Amino acid sequence: MGLMPTCLKFELLGCRQSGQVLYFQSLEYGMSKEVGYVSEIFDDRTLLTNLGFPYQYKTNQVYKWLITYPDKHYIKLIFTHIELNAVVEPTMCKDILKISNHIADSEFVRQIDQDFNHVIKDSLAIETKESQLILSFETCPYQLTAQSGKGFSSFVTYENIPACFSLRPRILWNKGLREICRQSIMLITSMAFLGFPFLQTTEQWTINNPTKRIHLQIISFYVPCKNVYYKSEFKIIDIEDEKVYCNINKPPKSIKSSFDNITVYFYKGTDPWPKLPHIEGFRIVYSAIAKDEEEENGILINQTALSKG
What we know:
five-stranded mixed sheet
């Protein structure tokens, strides 16, 4: 007889019991997995790690954290260590960290796998537009492991401004980003600025807010000019007006769109000198403002953008 669930009552994520061993039926592999940890997180700067870190962790386990913050506190995960088991045949099964805003398992989640092993220099940050999300760590039932990992270490905090970043990816992280930004105020940050290691990625944010102009405020900018060594390119597309910017020709601190639509485009090329102290990339906060509100909200966005780092 198979293992029976120990809990049937669910509150968003499951039984409100931390550290208790539970079981659930895995639809993907058709067998029961051990839930090693279930917890709810409400506090800022809470440390999250798998059981066994910083040594080794078990296979055939699932860890789940339900993170809930007050409204207008937008969750930010900062990973300081990622070292998952490196499997010989990752197409069969590989250990995965999943970030989702939906309780049900879905293909529409952001994933971190063994491709992220040993890539963190200082930290890797994931900024969201969510005040509630689920972080899951799922390990394979059986593995032919090429290298054993320690797991991961992260802490959770928040920003006061939502990030234009979807947990339902249109393309994989190692290819870039394709984001549609519709809220009235949001953060736009290049992946390299947040600590992602990927090269030759295309990142694009299309900002649209009907009947309102878009104001871009450049918070941080470091993009070497395109040459034989650097292939990176940053540009802002306003209707048919396309402007390219780099360190020699930096964008103005404040940019206003002609109408209600503007696009920020960034191609991250290869890095011929990866040990330089500068972090290539940028950080922008935008606001969508009606014409009669422009001056008043221009002051407000400056104060809000700098209220939390």
